[in-house]
Amino acid sequence: MYSRAHLLIEREFKNMSKDPPWGIEAWPMYDDTIFEWMAKIRGLQRTSWEGGIFKIYIKFDEHFSVRPPQVLFQTIPFHPNVEVCTGRPCVDFLDDYSLWKENFSISMLLVSLQTLLSFPVLKNAVNPEAASMLQNSPQSYRQMTQECVTASQRVEAGGSPQVTNPDSHAVRFNQPDVPARSTHNTRTAGATRVSKLSFDDYHNTWCGIATSKTRPDAVNPFLESIRGNPKLQEIHLGVPREELEDQMRKQMEEHSVLMYGKFKSQPSMESVRDAKIAHLERMKRIYLAPRQSPLPPREEIDIGKSLPALQATDANWEKEVDDLVNWTNTLDSNAIDAS
């Protein structure tokens, strides 16, 4: 006969299989026990974690659902609320049993972790470095999250978080060695084994994808490996190299203006001369009146010579008047009245 905890966990698995939340999968890891689960959550869409695939290990005990299960990130993200060494998420109802409610479901727990990735809580952060980067340099934090997303995709593909053959145009991975579980039989469908990651492997992984340096003369092996491949550099930086150089140039110009002021360039001699000539022309038009040419001398009119022409004009006019009067006298007044 199964225990109460076993029956509740089995019901949770049936509910998850029937109606899983978006981007969340969960299943028991082994056939002979239902108290150990493997979950997989994807980053929310339209956030910096979009495309990420993170595995979560869940271990129940006989006190479920009075007490919450143990939850650990197997794919540990660079996040203010996730411990770097253990992968334990900092969630109030997981840390304080008094805040856990018996009606809380595993679906709700995983959705809370999925939301926590995109909306971190900076108060009492368990990863101070990530919290400080998010507060002081959001662009660097976003770049780090993109590196986490890329690394999680490589791990999901069955490879290593790092690129191992930078000379090839295709990204290749080393197949990790997953130790088999000797005391239990693994599940045949969709089974995933939990493998522990040593601190040295973790440190080497993050040194390869981190953007900060432990010392000034340190060399980033990941940046060195993609130095000769422009395509991988564009993927790593998130923008084309030309656009990145243009942005850096603009930032340097803005920095110079803020620190030293904006200085105008020295005008050329030709532009100075043209400006002076234009100024003189304007002054001439304003203050110097235009010169007027003198009037031609008046001509003396001889009235005596003009009289014969005037008299001839008057004689012609009188003759026309007489002809008109004679014509009117010949008209029939009766015919005019009748018309």
UniProtKB/TrEMBL annotation:
Endpoints of the signal sequence: none
Gene3D superfamilies, per the entry: Ubiquitin Conjugating Enzyme
Keyword flag Signal: no
Protein name: Ubiquitin-conjugating enzyme e2 u
Pfam family, one: UQ_con
Organism classification: Eukaryota, Metazoa, Spiralia, Lophotrochozoa, Mollusca
Listed GO MF terms: ATP binding; transferase activity
Residues of the UBC core domain: 4-154
Catalytic residue list: 90
Keyword Glycosyltransferase on entry: no
Organism: Plakobranchus ocellatus
Keywords of the record: ATP-binding, Nucleotide-binding, Transferase, Ubl conjugation pathway
